[in-house]
Amino acid sequence: MGNGAEFFKAIALGGAKREYETIGSAKTVGGVKGKIVKRSGTDGNHSNLPQYAVTSDMYFRQNESGVCQARVYLDHKMTIDFDWSHAHTNKTDGRRFERGVVHVQVWQQNADGSFTRLSNQARMMSNAEMKKYGPLIKAFCPNVKFR
What we know:
alpha+beta, 37% strand, two-stranded antiparallel ribbon, 16% helix
């Protein structure tokens, strides 16, 4: 897990330098596997989640209050963030999301391989997302609200 170069090294060589480390045990709920990770050498409170995933469908981040963010990976690449660690306001439309309520931000991969998060287009979780990912999110953070 980690950046693109580390991800592809890990796949090709069967292991590479670990930029992130797992905290606790992985959980699988409804066929979706997730685990809490933190950047190696940090307390994990403010470290971003990896761009690529090797062993899970979702990685979770925690801060001093507990688990506060989840990232979904499709084809090993980050695609969606579920975040409830802070209040968020879209600059474009003024839509506001309170702390503790999940807001969804989509990642877009650019032509050069980098990623851009569409932060000003945050939205609530869809019914399909709540059904698929909600049970795993609740397994890691029982107090989170989806709407």
